Fold each of these.
Amino acid sequence: MPKIVDREKKRAEIAQKAIEALAKRGFQATTIQDIADAAGLGKGTIYHYFKTKEEILWAVSEQMFRETERSLGAALLKINEPMDKLVALIEEALHITDDLEHIFIIYSELWLMTVRGEPTGDFTNVLRRLQNDMTNLVASMIREGKKQGLWPGDTDADALAGYLASSFDGVFAHYMIDKENFDIKRVTNEFIKFLIKQSAPKND
């Protein structure tokens, strides 16, 4: 009787090895054969699960964001205050993992390719969708906070959310450039303290 293979589990295993190879060798330089070698599989087996290395990258990116969304969502169910929700989101967004570092390296290369006008498939649309999802999540928390008086009524929730979501990328970039000297946990904690202070009621 042929062995039953969990397709989604196998895709995840291949994707994990692929991301490591893509980050190490570079997106352009890495071939499907390289990914097959890293995964310990035949090239034909890889094509059975993924048509291109771009598809692997998009699948992993989507999976990472959705996992973050699920874990954050579970945590947020236990939190009532909008500021506490925003703090939890910031801490989760700036939580460093090996996978996140690999994705950042690959995306940096793809971004440069885009700037140079080189073909990158659906990279821009995928990245825009993920960024919009994060921005919308932050904006919803800011709107909730406005209702409770944490921020002035004329605060532009979408604009502020766009800034905060974009700042996550900037903080992470600084960390990747100088891991030894850039204490991302300290920076994150200080930013959270500043944000909480800014939202505190002002004495007239």
Amino acid sequence: MNPIARWAALACVGCAALLSGCTTDSAPSPGRSVAPGPTATSTVAPDAAVQLAERYRRSGGESDVYGIQRSSGPGGVPLLIVWTHNSDEDAEIFDDLKGSILGYLEREEGLSLGRGYLMDVFGPDGALQHRLDARP
């Protein structure tokens, strides 16, 4: 193997190891959330999430919301992923958005929040804006 190919191969292996985020720790650090979900996502919401957001907006919900995905999180609690065009990360705006979405999902979609819920909100660039673990 020529020296250039050898260095290229070593660089690729090194990058792969670095990007994989390998660690010898088996448990998350105490301050780190163990809630599922990415810290960034595609700016394109899945079709079912777009359809749910359309129903939410038609019922008077926030016009910036273009995706709401419902799935089952740890222990079966609802995991909600929200995509918004609003880049404002203000806590008050998040609280209003959270209340609006939860109210709609409980009232119109039959969502039960008795055991709590998890919510991730992603902004227009796909970056995580808010992550909330509202389990008791």
Amino acid sequence: MAVTTGLSGNEIFCLATKGYAPGNIVVGNSTHSLGILGSIGSGFKSMLGGELTQITQLIEEGRKTAYQRLLQEANNHGATGITGVNSHLIFHGSNIEFLAIGSGIHATSAAPNKFSTSADGQELYAQLDAGYRPICFAFGNVAYSMGIGRGLMGGLKTLGRGEIKEYSHIFNHTRHLALSRIVGHAVEHNANAVLGIRTTILPFGGVNEMLMIGTASYSTQLPGDKMQDPVTSDMTNIEMWNMANRGYAPLRLLLGTSVYSLGFIGGITSALKSFVRGEITELTTLLYDARENALNIINEEAKAIGADDVVGVKTYVYQLGNGLIEFLAIGTAVKKLSTVKTESEQLIPQAIVVDQDTFYSSNEGVGSININRGEKPINAGSKINFMIIFAILIFTILFPHIIKALFQ
């Protein structure tokens, strides 16, 4: 019987070499309404800042329900596994649909244990060849808000320049909550690794959800203590295969966040200087220090856990509004182990060929978020830009002698 699969030709080829044939696309969904009382309650709590436990639980329950229905549909099709599992939020007016979607696959020989994975067909091939058996799709999430109350206090602190540790702490805390929850999910399913972790910040009813998805897995190559403390990795499985081929295993996904303020006076000075050509020294120094601080956080953690290296380090900069800038550094700590190796000496070409999109749409909906891009939907820039220009004009009128001194 013909199948309708989301797998590409390259993915089908890769999985065939590991004994799997394509199956049908499988879907699970659950639609929820926050309701008036829920909205009022969450709005009040957001004033306090930090995690919004009610919202976290609501999203978690919705995602879990959709995922369980995905598993049921795959079971109805007799699938051995599900690849490319993803979890989406889709807004339908005041209602929210939680959608889980993936592609079933069937073992062509003796059926192994059933599994689900966030990895696509190419990534799954690399994971299996590196010696990691997938167990289940895993996720960890946290809903949070900077909060009105915390924003008022933080707003006063933005008058000075430098790191605002209160904000650095809340961002570090929320990110590590999501990480600890995806690890907890893995422990529940007797996994000793969570692989291919992808991190996304999503809007949800006026607050933000940080979502981490990956695959809870098991490898005989890892030390026995990893059953209680699974390794975590944000490397792609193809990157992980390359490291495994050189004898390295992932230890931990590392996160470092610093929130800095340019300061009110410093911000206006830099804005005024931007009207003339030349380097803005204050901003250059601040941005350099902030990045170094975020990188130092993950370096110190890597040393503490005995890592040999931190690979795949990426740095991101986000405008938070009110003169605040967040710097995020993320990477994976690795260590060389004598037990680590790959089944094959080389990856097959089909595993690394990039599939090309053949459908394009320029009709992007207002406020639409692509979960694969990891963009951070915080603060529209137009209002902030207007306020900066307005402040510059007022400053120029009130303090003409300072303006004159700046350009001399």
